[in-house]
Design a protein that fits this description.
Order of helices and strands: HHEHEEHEHHHHH
Shape: elongated
CATH class of the largest domain: Mainly Alpha
Number of helices: 9
Low-confidence stretches: none
Distance between the termini: 24 Å
CATH architecture of the largest domain: Up-down Bundle
Number of domains: 2
Helix content: 55-70%
Amino acid sequence: MLRLFGDLDIKWMSYRKLAYAVSGLLIVVSIISLVAHGGPRLSVDFTGGTVIEAKVEPPQSAETIRTAAAKADIGSPEIQSIGGGGQYLFRLGLGELKTTAFPKIKEAIESTAPGTTVTLLKEETVGPKIGSELRTKAIWAVLIAMAGILIYVGWRYEFMMALGAIIALFHDVLLTVGFISVLNIELSLTVLAALLTIAGYSINDTIVVYDRVREQSRLLRRENFQRVIDISVNQTLSRTLLTGISVTMTIVAIIVWGGEVIRDFGVVMLFGTVLGTYSSVYVASALALDIRGPETTRLRGK
């Protein structure tokens, strides 16, 4: 395997209390943001409503579009410029749901800015029942995924180690949702897919470290558990960074060239990739150390 470093002897676990403080601070910021915003901003996938994507030629200022929309008698839609080429996204909630929304938007913009042409690119409508069902299924998807991971890690290693892994997963999901709230990113099915992908990436990184910890605990019987974890993290660091760099390069490509539709997915994934790498060391491994105690060495495993 390609190695970025030679033999390292970084005492990772000696800094775990500082890491706990950083994680605690981030969790507090996330909770404050979620409370202040009344939870994450849900897309029409979960709340129900209509999303209209339209192109205005020649492009008009956002203020002109908002002024026109106010005259269209379609409620108070959320308007977002996308792509920078005169494309706009209109989000209408359930209370504003009208089958004639686009014709009214088109008429209002063309009358407000004579000489413009408004073309419908996409229109999606989600009913309240479907939105509610999707929201419930999304919550169950996250909970079932975490329960499955807890069972697998508990069987593969031991329950006390599994606790560290599952707390790290909750840590990653909570901070990522907090990140979404702070940046006011809309929680859609695409962003939910990013959350589940982050959970998978995070547990994969944790499993790599746990595997090496189990291996070293059998070889280094005279070393305490803290020392075994430090050695294991040092030995897997090259693999962790190479994987993280490769994933990050792909995500950056998605953010830059993927377009507006999947840009939020890329932004959330970028944050989650960094967070998952951090949590595999300073949440999962550090908690495993504190739960089991620093003097124990031998791990049960299959």
